[in-house]
Amino acid sequence: MRTKLLQNSHEFHTTNFKLVHTIGECKRKGSSEYLLNDPMGLKISKLMNWLLICDSGNKRVQIYDRFNFEYLYSIRMKTQPQYVEIEEWHDQCGYYADENSLLLYITCSNQVLIKMKVTVVMEENEKKLHVEELWNTRELLERNELSAEYGLFFERFNQEYLNSVLYVCDSTKRRIVMLNALDGSILNQLFLKRKEKFSSAVSILIDSKKKWILVSEMAGQRVKILDYKTRQLLHSLGKYGKELDEFSYPRGIFLEEKMNRLYVCDASNNRISLIDLDKLEFVEYFGGKNSNMEQVQLKTPTSVVIDDSTGTLLVSDNKLDQVFIFR
Fold first, then answer.
1. Which residues contact 97 (CB under 8 A, 6 or more apart)?
2. Keyword annotations for this protein (predicted)?
3. Which residues, 6 or more positions from 8, have their beta carbon under 8 angstroms from its beta carbon?
4. CA 103 from chain center: how many Å?
5. Cα distances (angstroms) measured from residue 233 to each of 124, 167, 237
6. Are 106 and 116 in contact (CB under 8 A)?
7. Share of the chain above pLDDT 70, in %
8. 264 close to 5: Cβ distance less than 8 angstroms
9. I want to staple 47 with a disulfide (CB 3.0 to 4.6 A). Which of 88, 135, 170, 285 is the partner?
10. Residue 73: pLDDT above 50?
11. Of the candidates 266, 313, 312, 300, the residue with the CA atom closest to the CA atom of residue 285
């Protein structure tokens, strides 16, 4: 029996979020099921109904139920996971192809990207997680062809390459590297002109409606918007500072498609900034000083995701060792 993709979704018209749950305890590092140590990337799997957290300091990826946030599984790593991307697909009727397996792409602190397949199996009447590594980019790192420590984005089908493509932030060489998602081979590289070069690109995504590539720059203090087809710079948003339209070491980004708003982890300003991509304007922020979120004072937000099926917004905070769930 195949799983049907849920079509229900929520719209986010305001930043007046209420805290409904937390994973981890404030500034209490730990390795138990519900404690975290320097959490980084977040991802939602609608196929498996999972919330995945890169629990970097504990060298593991923690998996929780995305509805009730109960602990499910741990994926043990040899090094610190930084960011995670998932590959799950469904046909034109909205049915998932494989409801028991998920493909993960994980960047690590040793600058190696790993692709793995995780499968839920029954062993002795108990559900367990089977993990199989499919490929990694260690040889590319050794040949100085790719340093993969930061964000990445999975594109289901690329018309130019007639394949699935993985976009990887390579901050060492100030570029975005495009990989064949099937085998990890390099397809192309995205560079900008000298004065426009990426400066510590840490997060990337594609706006399929506007045909844009969006990249956050930690050292550049900006979000850059590139034309998807020409790969030329169209817009550059932000500069260093504390005002509404400024950043201090931005990290993860997330696109809320219905309202066409970009959520940016403005890490050192301790907040999440919102940008209206239709108007190319900063709208508001939350989590920092003088915001309308009284329950939580963020410290160093590193990743933000929205689960539009449940109406929740999730933020990982690297300094507080917590993941906050708002609704």
1. 2, 89, 90, 91
2. Repeat
3. 309
4. 15
5. 55, 17, 11
6. yes
7. 90
8. no
9. 88
10. yes
11. 266
Residues 27-37: pLDDT tens digits? 999 999 999 99
Question: By the 8 A CB rule, do 290 and 274 touch?
Answer: no
Residue 308 CA neighbour count, 13 Å, CB half: 15
Question: 80 with 43: CB under 8 angstroms?
Answer: no
Give CA separation, 6 vs 49, 223, 310, 320, in Å. 11, 31, 10, 33
∠ CA 8-45-322, rounded to 5°: 105
Tokens 């590594």 correspond to: 133
Contact in structure between 106 and 79 (CB atoms under 8 Å): no
CB 305 within 8 A of CB 43: yes
Q: What is the largest CA-CA distance in the chain?
A: 60
Write down the residue that tokens 């190319």 correspond to: 280
Exposure on the CB side of residue 63, measured as CA atoms within 13 A: 19
Give rounded-to-5 percent helix, strand, coil for the chain.
Answer: 5, 50, 45
Q: Are the C-beta atoms of 30 and 36 separated by less than 8 Å? A: yes
Q: What is the pTM of this model?
A: 0.94
Domain extents for the chain? Answer: 19-326
Q: Is the pLDDT of residue 21 over 80?
A: yes
Q: Which of 136, 166, 139 is nearest to 151 (CA)?
A: 166
